[in-house]
Amino acid sequence: MGNKLYVGNLPYSFRDGDLEQTFSEFGAVQSAKVMMERDTGRSKGFGFVEMGSDAEAQAAIQGVHGKNFGGRDLVVNVARPMEPRPPRSGGFGGGYGGGRGAY
Prior knowledge:
Layout: E1 4-8, H1 16-24, E2 29-36, E3 43-51, H2 54-64, E4 68-69, E5 72-73, E6 75-78
Antiparallel strand pairs: 1-3, 1-6, 2-3, 4-5
């Protein structure tokens, strides 16, 4: 199954310690990380928790998924590996003007 969990729909006030405290009720928390916006320092509203074992991860899913925190029902499931993203295109060459040439 996997012991790394995705936790979504977090209240924006949630921090790493809140996540760890919430999941420690179900076993040993190896790590707890709320993902933050790089530029603003605000929470992105999701994070990841790594539990000590698959059984503890399953217990945490059962116990926390759907639980209401700060008016939001948490979504908890096994984290999937990050899928590769297509390369970002940048610079000039599209978007504005439609390539109409000189006036």
